[in-house]
């Protein structure tokens, strides 16, 4: 078993865990975490496939590595946005805080 195969299998297991978490999680935070685990698995599989091509004697292609790095950055930004929206949704569902009404009357 080569290193690329091991990384591919680890990525497949990680993607499977992410799909399971995405489908079975009840809350928004669980779904966001499941989606991130799924994304990590896909990035690992993609990196393993790119490495396997380089190990076969072909020239190393920098495009898959660049796509994985770009995908990690985009996934981080999307996670931050999703978490901010989740926090805002919880605030709206909880209603106005007691201090908010006081500030409105003082102005």
TrEMBL record:
Any one Gene Ontology cellular component term annotated for this protein: plasma membrane
Record-stated family: Belongs to the CPA3 antiporters (TC 2.A.63) subunit C family.
Q: Where in the cell is it found?
A: Cell membrane
Membrane-spanning segments: 6-25, 32-54, 66-87
Q: Which InterPro entries match?
A: CPA3_antiporter_subunitC (IPR050601), NUOK/Mnh_C1-like (IPR039428)
UniProt keyword terms in alphabetical order: Cell membrane, Membrane, Transmembrane, Transmembrane helix
Native source organism of the sequence: Xanthobacter dioxanivorans
Q: Which domain of life is it from?
A: Bacteria
Q: What is the protein name given in its UniProt record?
A: NADH-quinone oxidoreductase subunit K
The UniProt entry lists membrane topology as: Multi-pass membrane protein
